[in-house]
Amino acid sequence: MNLKPWREVAVPHEDVLKGTFQQAEFAADLSRVHEGTATAEYQNPTLFFQRTFITEGMRLLLDSVVKRLSGKGGDPVIQLQTAFGGGKTHTMLAVYHLAKGEALASDLPGVPAILDAADVTELPRARIAVLDGIKSSPNQPVMRDGQAIRTLWGDLAWQLGKAEGYALVADADASGTSPGKAVLETLLKSHAPCVILIDELVAYVRQFEDGKTLTGGSFDSNLSFLQALTEALKAVPRAVLLASLPESDKEAGSQRGVKALAALAHYFGRIQALWKPVGTEEAFEIVRRRLFTSINDKLAAESVCRAFADFYTANSEDFPRETQESRYFERLMHAYPIHPEVFDRLYEDWSSLDNFQRTRGVLKLMAKVIHRLWKDNDKDPLIMPGSFPLQDADTRNEVIYYLPQGWDPVVERDVDGERAETTDIENRDTRLGSVQACRRSARAIFLGSAPSTANQMVRGIELERVALGVAQPGQQVSIYKDALRRLGDRLHYLNSGNNRFWFDTRPNLRREMEERKRRFQDKEDVFPAIRDRVQKTFASGVFGGIHIFTSSSDVPDDWQLRLVVLPPDAAFSRSGQSLAIERATEILKNRGDQPRFKQNRLIFLAADYDSVSRLKDQVRSTLAWQSIVGDIKEMKLNLDQFQSRQASKSLEDANEALRRMIRETYKWMVAPMQEARPGKGLSEIQWEHFQVNPGAQNLSQEIERVLKENELLITEWAPIHLATVLKNWFWKDDIKDTSALNVWQQSCQQLYLPRLKDDTAFQQTMGAGAESREFFGFAQGKDDGRYVGFSFGKRTSLFLDSSLLLIEPVTAAGYAEAQRAAEEAARPKPIEPTPGITGSGVAPPRAEDSGKPIYAGGGAALQAVKKQFYGSIELDAIQAKKQFADLVDEVVQQFTIRPGVKVRIAIEIQADSPTGFDDGLQRAVKENCNVLRFKNAEFEE
User: Fold this and answer.
1) Can you tell me the distance from the alpha carbon of 56 to that of 487, in angstroms, rounded to the nearest whole number?
2) Can you give the pTM of this predicted structure?
3) What's the Cα-to-Cα distance from 779 to each of 718, 783, 786, 801, 805, rounded to whole Å?
């Protein structure tokens, strides 16, 4: 979005541009104007009103003065009691120029409207008396045309009527006693219309000590004079008094000042008129008139303000609620080229500081800000809280001047400047640096939070107000949110809580944490902490033992499957030299000083090389937070409740971050293997690596999944694979059987053999192949060429011991056939039946022959022969594959191994679903059925 920079639309006054303004220029001095020695902008009525915005409070006051001087009513006494810098003296100057009448009312911007409202055509010129409590001395007479003036009433009378007026109070002036109401009434009537302006009255009265009389009178005589004066003014229709009183006891100064303020407020309070201080909205125009000449391009200004208003509406969730109101556009227009948030922060927050004047303080600070931004060729469309050039020494000193001690290092280190953390972050991250996201955010937080104190219940500014102070149309608010997260991790004086941010002169707990982090060493502190955390991530699983950061001598060399977790200093890297492989090789080959034999029982888990440094840093952070929370509980750290809660929350966050970092770092499964082909020897040890999913719920289950999917671990082994291994490595030309125990043990030792979960998996494989004649036979030993306990093609009980043999299937089949032939030859021949004892011609069977078969004799069948078999069974849908395999082995093969037997198998599948089957499933099932040549395959309603 191409918006005009503020510098092309609003041009500052010459003194602001050149930086030649001084503090005194912003401090309107009533006495200097009365003496004719003030600067032109205050001395010249026309220039004064050109740069003066008539606020609502000033308009009401001027209206009352105009009416009073014209004899049309109005208030006789007006007390201006507002906060420090609330515009009291500036208002008195407006009354001064209006009443003195040195310029035509038509030449004074804003004045004709006031006269019209009061129905006054021409305002009569009034006599003016200015009593300045700062300039006057209670014990130092002032010489006027050779006449010594000692008291306030003497000075008043001389200014109104020269020697003639003074003569009315001469005796009272000489004696230091009040002249009384009647004399003052005569003085006022004879010189009306008149205006009396008393500034800094408390500063004068508080100098009188109790019971002590000075040339200017006494404490009581001055109070009596002021009481008499206020009473006299009521009786003179065309006389008016304006007096300024400080708002707070602190501004009153000493105890006598507080006492004087209380007494004066009492007397003035009886007759005072209402006075409305400068509002924030009115301050927009006051500051703009004083600092800027004019708005050159009103359309460009309106375009900028409209773009900001639309930007806030389009991103309503990111900004304060008031920005969604239509009147916020009007606020932008009134404040242009300064963002309204600047005024809100200065008038709402900074004005709460005792020594920050509401109007003068804002003018002085903004003059320095604008001068520096102009000099730096700032191109922002508005001057925002995030624009404040706190890297500039003049601006920074001006801001810090109003704050308590200790803010200079906060600004220099955390907020702005070449050595600030914010600058360093932006230099390292160009995305943040392109919009100065860190510096702008820190400036906005500083402006909105520095005036707050630790005693406040709610500190800092909300995230939405930070965004309001920094984000511009066309930018993403999210980039500033990212910057705030980075600042929260890096800055030493920034605090946050409940979606609020603030700076403090006390280092935050993060700095304490950073300092404590340096105490922790890798070997003594960090590695043990990682070991404990890694240990907690494992649950029971396939491993017989898990060895975390264990030396080779402490990893047993046995038949159990073992997972070895390597320490962080033995991390895995896919590129370049990997310390993990070196350490794993050492453990694989040796157990301490002895060679390791069961090498195929080890699997390794290693840390990611690129993540180790972040993991160690996170461990140190967690240990530091633990020590801080521990010290808080033991009352070793003196922190407030918020910081204590913050420490506990930070510890929780650190623990959670550490848990994630452990999983993200320890993600490499590393397993040894060798390639071997019969007759070609073994290859060197090779290392396979596979990545574990850090987001998996259960690390043990995830490791098991990775091992199974990549065939690094076998939990269920098909008999055909065992038969292949036996054929390749154990059955030779002259050796047709081998020890089953030796096969299992060799699989635990040799890296070229499959890695089984345990011996149970091996026994289950043998048991699954026992009923088949395709894989192997069994014997419980061999004696003189004969197999003891021979079994082939049938279920048998197996015991994995040194006597169990696995026999090559052809050899086993031949041995079974020879065994069957030997049994057949040894079996006695059948006995022919004897006819004749019974009527049927059949002899009754003998008991001893009941277990023997009966054969047909004489061509006649003695027993019917069954020629057909039918069988049906329902299979479990989940275990159907295994059940069908059992069915084939146990039943079907009983028929297929016999010649001449025809076997027909028909399969019927029925599936029901109360919710129906979707189109994708129907299509997949039908296609598979066609491929498998189903006769019928239909879905029905």
Assistant:
1) 43
2) 0.57
3) 20, 11, 10, 11, 5
